[in-house]
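Table S5 (text form). Sequence records supplied for joint modeling of the two-component complex.
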Amino acid sequence: MHAGTGELVASAIIKAAQKTGMPEGVFSNLNSSGIEVGTELLKHPGVKAVGFTGSIKGGRALYNLAAQRDEPIPVFAEMGSINPVVILPEALQEKGTEWAKTYANSITLGTGQFCTNPGLLLGIKGEKLSTFIDTLSQEIIKIEPSCMLHPNILGAYEANRKKATSQAELKVVAEYESTIKENYARQTVTTVSGNTFLNNATLHQEVFGPYSMVVACNDAKQLQTIISKLEGQLTGTIIASNSEIETYEDVISAMQNRVGRLIFNGVPTGVEVCPSMNHGGPYPASTDSRFTAVGIHSIKRWVRPFSYQDWPNNLLPDALKNNNPLGISRLVNNKQTHDVII
Amino acid sequence: MHAGTGELVASAIIKAAQKTGMPEGVFSNLNSSGIEVGTELLKHPGVKAVGFTGSIKGGRALYNLAAQRDEPIPVFAEMGSINPVVILPEALQEKGTEWAKTYANSITLGTGQFCTNPGLLLGIKGEKLSTFIDTLSQEIIKIEPSCMLHPNILGAYEANRKKATSQAELKVVAEYESTIKENYARQTVTTVSGNTFLNNATLHQEVFGPYSMVVACNDAKQLQTIISKLEGQLTGTIIASNSEIETYEDVISAMQNRVGRLIFNGVPTGVEVCPSMNHGGPYPASTDSRFTAVGIHSIKRWVRPFSYQDWPNNLLPDALKNNNPLGISRLVNNKQTHDVII
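The corresponding structure-token record, covering 684 residues in total, follows.
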């Protein structure tokens, strides 16, 4: 949908590759209005691995094709996620208004198109949660709507939003209603009971855009049950007081089992490119939860381990040579060391 | 085929698990005469990953089932391998007799049932290779045949050996012919030209047992072509003089592209359990070349990365706590250190 922008970016990457002496063809930008180009690439015997960011439907289709090849290849697809956020009563007591404002911003950040967008807020029913829902609703309506990436994404947002809000026993508590520009999205907040959520799998599905649903659970036990029944997620967030984070141990344990990154008293939107980042999670957050799509370890998707046995020192890669010409830390006879090997 | 032995071993493992306080059910030994038990286990939603050692047919069947699940799971199948060995002319000139004796032993080690058994020896045609083939044939016949693991494996060995040796333009140069005991296997060495090997994919298939084929290539170029057309392998071995290992750079590079472990002037049989071991390789040696089945890194098949963001220090796993209670080396702000975090 932005082929011109894509071409500009691609030409910059190719120039950078040439300037830094990388091999011809190290980068290609291919365009297609359908799935043909991707399908043909994936089937080609010369292709050994695939990375993908997009929908569950698209990622799974690529995964299935890759698994059916004579030589199966890995597909690292980062797909859907509703990034559950648990908001506990004492935390709301302490600073509920602040969390409501923070989450109004997180839900609408980038018109809700972050893969780590918080689409599901889980609380325990009661006065504090009701007040939070009211404040969140008031705050999110104040935010100016913004433009989605392209009309198809807006179309899908509207269709999914309509499907979600038409479910029985769901209440729309906030919806931007004034006139908006073309391709802009109306932020929306809904709420359901824990029972309703548990009994309707449609409510577990992602509404990609500035949409979030607050689930009012009966108690900690139901909260834990709901989390354990969620599909795999990129992130999970716990908003808790210092005492709650210790008393809700089972809830946190359930969350850890379903996500790739656990956040304490923050928002899931925003992904730092650093060694400790994990951007991935149990299926369908990603097709391979053993790898991250962001951070230095993401390179591991494209390499494989290799052993040299009794190989002549002068022919080893520099990283393995006895005199350690790269000056790196290495495991030698079970000891991590920068030393040369004598 | 050894259910009683299996049960004895299983009971020892379960006792060890109990003595060391591991959870109930951490280990189970299930028996089946067919594929039903494995199939049902693999389809169960509670099963999250599969390890397997066996045939390409069996491993691929499990892989296919796992990829078709609603939630696909990884299958780490270590499957077939013919473990190519390149034997270069100068190395044969220097000590051809010694290599022939060494390989007669390696081919018959464990009745040829090592997954790293050298099933394919690649040389360059000429007097030195002919002498090597003669010596290897004489030496391998001297070795007493031994018993295979069970009658089905022997049956498959006999069928595959018959299929291989009935191929056109293949010559049987050694075959143990005296009377042997029940379930014992007859070691066999065959030879073909490089052209014949290139044109007959049946010759690329594994004959699991004490069988090896010597391919006499026209020249280094054909040797490289043959290697590049092989399927993925656990190991590749280069028998070379000091000068040959530098001049046959393209041959070695082709080999590196097809294997998970490269051995210089040795035998592939024997796998050390150590951090630098890689026991795996491009498909079909294994279904996932990014993981090893042997050595400390094999544990990575069963874990996934996880990020804790802003998580309270006292609730972090010990490995991540600020005061480093385990005393391990950690990456802190891009520096590998044993230090505590202040």
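Note: Chain A touches chain B through 50 residues (CB under 8 Å).
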